[in-house]
Specification:
Four copies of one chain form a homotetramer.
Chain A (H helix, E strand, L loop, with lengths): L5 E7 L12 H14 L3 E7 L19 H10 L2 E9 L2 E2 L1 H10 L18 E10 L2 H15 L8 E6 L15 H23 L7
Parallel strand pairs in A: 1-2, 1-3, 3-5, 5-6
Antiparallel strand pairs in A: 3-4
Helix pairs in contact in A: 1-5
Amino acid sequence: MAPAPLKLIALNCTLKSKRSNEQSSTDVLLGQIVEELGKYDCNGEIIRVVDLNIKPGVTSDEGEGDDWPALRKRILDADVLVVGTPIWLGQPSSVAKRIFERMDAFFSEKDDQQRTPAFGRTGAVAVVGNEDGAHHVSAELFQCLLDVGFAIPPHALTYWVGEALGETDYKDLMRTPKPVAQMTQMLAANVAHMARLLKRDPFPGLQ
Amino acid sequence: MAPAPLKLIALNCTLKSKRSNEQSSTDVLLGQIVEELGKYDCNGEIIRVVDLNIKPGVTSDEGEGDDWPALRKRILDADVLVVGTPIWLGQPSSVAKRIFERMDAFFSEKDDQQRTPAFGRTGAVAVVGNEDGAHHVSAELFQCLLDVGFAIPPHALTYWVGEALGETDYKDLMRTPKPVAQMTQMLAANVAHMARLLKRDPFPGLQ
Amino acid sequence: MAPAPLKLIALNCTLKSKRSNEQSSTDVLLGQIVEELGKYDCNGEIIRVVDLNIKPGVTSDEGEGDDWPALRKRILDADVLVVGTPIWLGQPSSVAKRIFERMDAFFSEKDDQQRTPAFGRTGAVAVVGNEDGAHHVSAELFQCLLDVGFAIPPHALTYWVGEALGETDYKDLMRTPKPVAQMTQMLAANVAHMARLLKRDPFPGLQ
Amino acid sequence: MAPAPLKLIALNCTLKSKRSNEQSSTDVLLGQIVEELGKYDCNGEIIRVVDLNIKPGVTSDEGEGDDWPALRKRILDADVLVVGTPIWLGQPSSVAKRIFERMDAFFSEKDDQQRTPAFGRTGAVAVVGNEDGAHHVSAELFQCLLDVGFAIPPHALTYWVGEALGETDYKDLMRTPKPVAQMTQMLAANVAHMARLLKRDPFPGLQ
């Protein structure tokens, strides 16, 4: 029997609007992750968060014009959340931060077993920058994902950065470096495996 | 001869709009810092950043409707920048992150001595939260401030957080805890001292 | 049929030797975690790492007198690794850092499926301090655990810290705060669940 | 009149003993910093910390065999402290962490003006790794330096890391990359300037 199909959502937390017609390096890397996850029958879409109106706040609905309630629903409808962010000053983008501020509301939305709405879902992270910062950005995002209720398998990270003070963009590389391609394959294998385990056997929480 | 007066600007990076009429704990703490700095003839205003339209991006002007160019000017007109932020998930707010993304442009605005526009200015940090996160938030903001060109004196931080998993707000405390009041006094003494030294003897940069 | 018993190892990364006869707050918290995990038939021991000779380095055996090879074996013999650390200057202890430096060697010990020796094991974190730092310490340790090959379920963290600038020790609290006790129960439920899933269905790695 | 000479101490927090006869990349970078600072009449030595017996603990003297009291004296005798560390798992070395744990004792050694023993001294940071981590490592070390009482000028950091997943060592580069050499020059200019200002006009602390 074929394993159940999985649903993913990938959030591109670049600062660049699609309207700018500039390609986003984060988009390129997320595209590669989505392709690899597809091989495990895990499919879904990449969302450009900066083009939505995610209002500042820490509730699940900040009122008129807020695009978070719809995005929140899509996140919770998926089995897998991939958060992709560029690096600025060695840190995740403000767009990535905003997303997690809104998920802070999950803490007040626990069920009777003390599980947040994200419980049972699996998280992964993609990071790109001209240089330096991927490990720390992943640490910040892994902590946020775990805090709000996602599970993380080992090696659920793909990243690329250039040499210190470099100015090359990932999107401009002639080819994907082999170790990066392998990280992406490993991410997909681990994320799909964990997501399937948790779909079949969800965390019971506290009885 | 009295020392030259100093100008400060304090950025409140809370997620709460002034329009909400909710008091901001960050505002309370920044107010105390501004009061203490006033004793050293260092005066200025607190700006509620969330009420401005600071557009996503890493340039000094992101075009129509962008409030950053005016705010950028005010920051560079001051001798002292105090960044105040609440803690969410143990990390600085997305509003604080946004501010520093915009200051990333300073790197491409160096003068012939390789000094960014922020050189010669002094930075300080204020952090408030219900619980846990102030040291890390200060580490993130100190690194950003230093990277874009501010100098930091020792003990340029005031913070308050409650016990683990606490839910009390700083603004609701009956009185300011004595060690917090003393931190604020120390911050003011050190920041004023360093700002005066640098006003008189600016960094020469590379010749 | 009863679920298979699980083995745990808990590393106490306090700076205090057992020989000092001072009680370690980290020990108290780890003891509570071990007790809760015992309810899920997950049993093992707490090791005081500072009393071992874990030599500086990034290989699996740094030669004469090195206690790491034996500790490494015990870690890999267990299904669950709980790392407990005090907070100093808002950061994990040097003893905790040392442990992960030694696990860096796992990267060069991957099998043909690109899995490090830690793959299939589940990690959790315990943090105690007088004040502030638990979220960041957990971020640092979660990132290390994931990087070297452990999986992390949601809410795999228990922590306690006092109010800002506080000086109370966890070991001196009259009773365990209820929210801390509940975090510990949740940690145990989630860690035991994930460890059982992974014991039955290990990550396949890359084919 | 020539400016007063300045004293520096540089701590190499590599995990490699001098006895190993392996060259340390951190040493190479620290050597370049020391050379540049020499041009500003700021001179001193590089200490290999791993070859000392810096005992675990948070007091200024951990008893028999502890090499910290002597090292502590040398740090406080200098005007400038440069901390150099390799990156492991995106984080500072355990040897660097240990140093700051010992400086935690400064908090209980404040004078009547609430100044720690480090007040009036200037800090700087050097980071090297095969890949990724320099910004975060600098954030961790800057926060520690500021917390214990050092002042930090802008651009008080020199670092080098290779491309993502790279395996090249800084010590094996054919030549120093020009942007790295310039960072080092800038570090020296800023650190020497600030150290001189603070030597002449120390922080007054609280009256």
